[in-house]
Amino acid sequence: MTEYEHVRVAVIGSGFGGLGAAVRLRREGITDFVVLERASGVGGTWRDNSYPGCACDVPSHLYSFSFAPNPDWPRTFSGQEHIRAYLEHVADVFRLRPHIRFDSEVKRMAWDPEQLRWDIETASGSLSADVVISATGPLSDPKIPEIPGLESFPGKVFHSARWDHDYDLTGKRVAMVGTGASAIQIVPAIQPKVAGLTLFQRTPPWVMPRIDRAISGPERWLHKRLPFTAQARRGLLWGIRELQVQAFTKHPNELGFVERLAKGNMARAVKDPALRAKLTPDYRIGCKRILLSSEYYPALTRPNVDVVASGLREIRGNTLVAADGSEAEVDAIVFGTGFRVTDMPIAERVVGADGRTLAESWKDGMESLRGASAAGFPNWMTIIGPNTGLGNSSMILMIESQLNYMADYLRQLDVLGGRAALDARPSAVHAWNRRVQDRMRRTVWNTGGCTSWYMDASGRNTTIWPGTTSEFRRATRRVDLAEYEVLRAPATEETADRAERPEVTA
């Protein structure tokens, strides 16, 4: 990368959002762009999360781009290796690799109001761009809690998203901290090989069976030869989830039936009433993400597993002490404690028009216009931005909606002509977020009685979209220029002088 390179569009990240943006740019006829990736390969969260048992909890045919269907998914719920292979395939088929700059983590980017461009410093050099598409994703930067004594723990420590494959857990005493989506996949995967497994559980999750199976050869043949069959399968999966949304957003009490199914799932696997009591949540199902596993509960009943229904309080040498005073001697600690979702580190590196970072602008909570544009940050858009997350369906649907918005945003800049930029009006941003938060009040995520990573430090849900994917698609179909301020580059002395000269006619 040359020091003074300039591109029309810079995309940050090469996960689903970044690769999707790159494909859409090419389909719009835009080839003057780069994809800045901090790692040495594509895949985003599906590259970073390679822990044992890692898989998606969204059906395979719904967890892929509509413009890049995969008739060869091997299972109804695909594993990490298959999803990463799919993303590698997308990068190859759509000829994206010449645009990707690996090992190019963004260190800082600042808006230049004179040139109407973003100046970007990366680990591999500097460049500038007219437009930035930030697709770093909310599940990209692991969060490890501050626990007294952790720095002096003599054993092995790592986060689920930074799995150390060189460290063999066989015969080791292992602590699993956390009971989220990663933990319930890790526990059954490592339980048979470890000497002992202590699960530190602050809040038990609701777990439903994961009805996973191999997709047969005839099914795959049919999807390949008759693509409309795969489209119909995808449509059915999407429709079922769209019908479920009202229970989450308007009528949480209707989820009581699902709760009973989840309790039945637990009762079939866990016969010990004391253990069942530890594992039974005290909040409405759906308040936290409903997890899918048919192996988690059986693994917890094995003799080498101990469930501590209390958070980890401190560490004394090899001894882990829970908040309830119980202790466990371990050789390794695995943190399944989530990610920096509502305080994304990339926000600390983005400097807007007034000299403030995005993190400073969002100090009272993330908010953006239609999940994409932040006031004071012209020609900057985010994929999977504030209030675009889902509690029951595929994020790829939301990403594709945001790609529609991105494409129209770039078209509007073309129509404006010259050196122009669009800056979201604060009034439009606040109006959009006021409507979102008003709708959020009655949802299960706000009323279900739990504390989740959907909420920011002030208790506001800045993560989830309180509606259907269809509603979001309609809301992001077009850019409304009335919601933006149009910025023009200041006239240079040469252009100003030319404008003042009288027209000379023959």
From TrEMBL:
UniProt entry keywords in alphabetical sequence: FAD, Flavoprotein, Oxidoreductase
Keyword Chaperone: no
Keyword Membrane assigned: no
Transmembrane spans: none
Similarity comment: family membership: Belongs to the FAD-binding monooxygenase family.
PANTHER family per record: FAD_NAD(P)-BINDING DOMAIN-CONTAINING PROTEIN-RELATED, L-ORNITHINE N(5)-MONOOXYGENASE-RELATED
Listed name of the protein: NAD(P)/FAD-dependent oxidoreductase
Species, as recorded: Streptomyces phaeoluteigriseus
Lineage: Bacteria, Bacillati, Actinomycetota, Actinomycetes, Kitasatosporales
